[in-house]
Amino acid sequence: MKRRTLIAGAAALGLASRAQAQTPGARTRVVFWHAMNGALNDEVNRICAEFNAAQAATEVVPVYKGTYPETLTAAIAAWRAGQAPHLVQMYEVGTGSMLAAGPAVKQTWQLIQESGVAIDPNAYIGAVRGYYSLPDGRLASMPFNSSTSVMWLNVDAMERAGLDPAKPPATWPEVVAAAQAVRAKSAAPTACTSAWFPWIQLEQFAAMHDLPYATKANGFEGLDTALLVNAPPFVKQLDRLLAMAKDGTFRYGGRDNAADPLFTSGETAISFNSSGSRGDIAKTAKFRWMEAPLPYDPELTTAPINSIIGGASLWTMTAPGRTSAEYKGVAQFLAHIAQPAQDALWHQNTGYVPVTLAGFEESKRQGYYGKNPGADVPIQQLTRGTVTPNSRGFRLGRMPELRSIAYEEVERALQGQQGAQAALDNVVGRGNRVLREFERANRA
Amino acid sequence: MERRTIFPGRLLPILLAAPQLLLTAVFFLWPAGQAAWFSTARQDAFGLRSEFVGFENFSDLLTDPLYRESVGRTALFCALVAALSMGVALLLAVFADREIRGRAAYRTLLIWPYAIAPAVAAVLWILVLHPQVGLVGRWLNRHGVAWDYRLRDAQAMSVVVLASAWKQVSYDFIFFLAGLQAIPRTVTEAARMDGARGWRRFRTITLPLLAPTVLFLLVVNLVYAAFDTFGTIQALTGGGPGKATETLVVKVYRDGVVNLDLGSSSAQSVLLMGGVIVLTMLQFRFLGRRRAD
Predict the structure, then answer these.
(1) Closest chain B residue to A399 measured between Cα atoms?
(2) Exposed, middle or buried, A257 (CB in 10 Å: 0-12/13-18/19+)?
(3) Based on CB atoms within 10 Å of each CB, which residue in A26, B40, B113, B248 is the most buried?
C-alpha cells in the first residue's frame, strides 16, 4: 500500500512539472531527477545553472529524488503514470533493470542518432563505457558519476606497526601480514575493515582477477545467466576475510558505507572503500592517510586488470507526447557535461573519477594530481590492462537484491553460522532464483 | 443504552456518508484492489509485460523457507514487544497509581515517547546503542562485551524490540493507569483488612480486575508490533544483519520497493491484509464486549 502512495505521489509531482513545461513561450524544460545530496547536490545545481546560462533554448531543472533506490522506484512509478522525467540518474546496479525497460527509455546511441548531437563513445574510459554499453559497443546510458574502490591506509598507524608507507601491501598475503603487524604492535584497535562488501570483496575481486562472476559474460549476453561466485577463488577470498575476522584483524562495519567512520576515526589502519570517500576522509581524518590500489591474490594472477566502476549514469526516459525538441535539449545537456573541461571540474570538485580520458588529461595538465597525491590511483586502476568480458561490469537483473543476498549470507558467515563455501553456495542458490524470476518477468 | 438518530429518506444518509466512503474507496479499496490484482500476476518493474499466474505468487511464498522464517520471526518480535512494553507499562502504572510527590509531572513525562516519530526514535536509540558512537554501546565494548548489533542477530533483535517497545510503553501506561484507577478502593482496602500483602493483593485482586485492559492492550500491542514498527526497524537495522530483524512488513517493503518484485510483494501485502482484518475483527469484538459490560 506504501508503494501505491508512492506511485500516486510521483504522478502528482510529474503532473505539476508537465503543467509548467507547457507554459507558452517558455524555453524547453528538461526535468533531471538525481540522487546527489549535500555538496554533490550543489555541484549538480552548478552544472545545470551553467548550462542554462550558456544557451537559450533549453532549461534543465534538477530535482533531488532521494537515495539511488528511491530514485529508481520513483522513476518507474512516474513512467507507469506517463510522467517520467526527461533524464534520471540511475546507479550502476540498476543498469540491468533499465536495459530491460524497452520503450520506457531512449538509449543514448538512439538519442545521438535522432538528435544529431555529437557524443563520441570512444571518449570514455573503457571500464566506464563497457558498463553502460550494449554488447556491440553502442552506449545505452550516459556515464556521469563513477568511482571505483581502493585501499585506504592510515600512514601513522602503518609507521607505528613498523610498515613502510612507501610500499603499501599489494597482495592479499601482504595485507594479512600487515594486519598481523598492526595487531602485534597495537598500532590501531583493528587492522582492517571493508565498506560495500559484495562490491569490493566479490565483484571487484572477480573483475581484477579476470574471473567470471556469472555465466553469459556476467549477463551481458543473455537473461539466462547464472552466478558463479561459489567458485574456489571466491571461497578462498571469503575464507581469508573470515579468518581475519576471527583473529580480530578484520572488522565488519555494516552494509554499504556504514564502515566509513571505522577508518576516519582511526579505529582501523586499512580500509577497503570507494575512491569517492576521499573528500570525507580529507575532511574528517585526524591522521596522515594515503590511497593505494586494491590488493590482488598472487596465486590467481600477477598482473591484475581493471577494476569495475560504481556510481551512476544518466538515462533518458520517454513519456507520452514528449517532443523531439525536448530530446534534443537532453542530448545537448549530455554533450555539455561530456566536455573535457566539465568532466575534469566535476572530478576535482566531487572526488569521482573523470569518466573521459580527456577529462583525466585535462586534470593532469592542470596539475591536480601533483597537489593531490594519490587521486589518480583509482583512474590508473580503472585503466589497467585490457577490458575483458569479466571486467566489463555486470548486466544482472535485480542486482540490488543480489547484493542484499550477498550481504545477508556474509553477515551470517561472519557470525560463525556458516562457512565460506556454504555462504557462497547460498548466494548462488538464492541469487539464481532471483535471476530466473527476472528472466521470466522480462521475457519478450 | 443505545441512542440512534433516524434520518428520513435515503438521500441524506448517503450524502452524509459519501465523503468517508469516497476516502475509503480512493485510499483503501482502489490500492488494495490493485494489490490483489498484482498478487496474481508476474510482471516486470515497468509493467511492460504482465502475465497472469493465478496463485503462483502465493504458493511460492508459502513454500519459501525464508518467508516462513519471517513469519516465525515476526511472531517472536510481536510477543517480545508486547510483553516488554506491557510489563514495563504495568509496573510504571502501579507506581504512578500511588501517592507520590510530583505525580502529574511523572505521568506527563511518561507519555512523551508516544509522540516521537518512529524514525526519530530509531535515531535516538542509535545515539545510545551504536558501538562506536553510542554512549551505552561504547561503554559495553569498553567493559568486555562484544556489542555490535549490526553484526549479531540476537543483539539486533533486542535493539529493535527495545526501541519498538519503548515507543509503546506510554500508550499502555495510560490505559493501565486508567484501569487501575477504575478499581474500587473499597475492594483493595477490604483485602488489606483481611491481611493480604502487596504482591498477593496485586495478583488476586488487581490483576483479575485489570484483565479486560490487559486483553485489549494485548491486541493493540500485537497489531502495533506487527504493522507499525516498520519505520523503527528500517531506520535501526534495515532488516539486518542477515535477515535477523526482517519482519513481514519490512519484507514487503524490501521485495516491493527495493527489489521491485511486485507480484511477490503484493501477495505478501494481501496476506498481511488478511492478518490485519482478523486482528481488527478480534479487537472490535472485544471492544464491543467491553462496551456492553
Answers:
(1) B259
(2) middle
(3) B248
Of B32, B43, B46, Cβ closest to residue A101: B46
How would you list the strands of the sheet with A149-154, edge to edge?
A: A250-252, A190-194, A268-274, A149-154, A289-292
Contact B32 A1 (CB under 8 A): yes
CATH number for region A2-147+310-371: 3.40.190.10
Say which CATH superfamily domain A149-307+398-442 falls into: Periplasmic binding protein-like II (3.40.190.10)
Instruction: Quote ipTM for the complex.
Output: 0.78
Q: Do the Cβ atoms of B42 and A265 come within 8 Å?
A: no
CATH of the domain at B149: 1.10.3720.10
Phi, psi of A354, deg, nearest 5: -65, 140
* β-pair type (A142-147, A310-317): antiparallel
Task: Measure in Å the smallest separation between the Cα of A96 and chain B Cα atoms.
Answer: 12
pTM higher than 0.90? no
pLDDT digits (tens, 9 = 90+) for A85-123: 999 999 998 998 899 898 999 999 999 999 999 899 999
Q: Where in chain A are all domains bearing CATH 3.40.190.10?
A: 2-147+310-371, 149-307+398-442
DSSP B67-91: HHHHHHHHHHHHHHHHHHHHHHHHH
DSSP alpha helices (H): ranges in A256-386?
260-264, 278-284, 324-337, 340-350, 357-365, 368-371, 377-382
How distant is the Cα of B266 from the closest Cα of chain A, in angstroms? 9
Question: Does A408 sit within 8 Å of B240, measured CB to CB?
Answer: yes
Tens of pLDDT, residue by residue over A127-176, are 899 899 998 889 999 999 999 999 999 999 999 999 999 999 999 999 99
For residue B106, what is its C-alpha cell?
Answer: 511523572
Residue B252 has pLDDT above 90, yes or no: yes
The alpha carbon of A187 is separated from its chain's Cα centroid by a whole number of angstroms, namely 32
Q: Which residues of A44-70 are buried (b: 16+ CB within 10 A; e: fewer)?
A: beebbeebbeeeeebbbbbeebeebbe
Chain B residues close to A256, C-beta within 8 Å: none
Low-confidence stretches of chain A (pLDDT beneath 70): 1-25, 444
B259/A398 touch (CB, cutoff 8 Å), yes or no? yes
C-alpha A101: how far from its chain's center? 20
Distance from CA of B44 to the nearest CA of A (A): 5
Residue written as cell 495478583? B203
Pairing label, strands A310-317, A28-34: unpaired
Task: Please state, for a pLDDT cut of 70, what percent of chain B lies above it.
Answer: 96
Average pLDDT of chain A is: 91
CB contact under 8 A, A404 and B254: yes
- Min distance A41 CA to chain B CA atoms (Å): 23
pLDDT average, residue stretch B204-222:
89
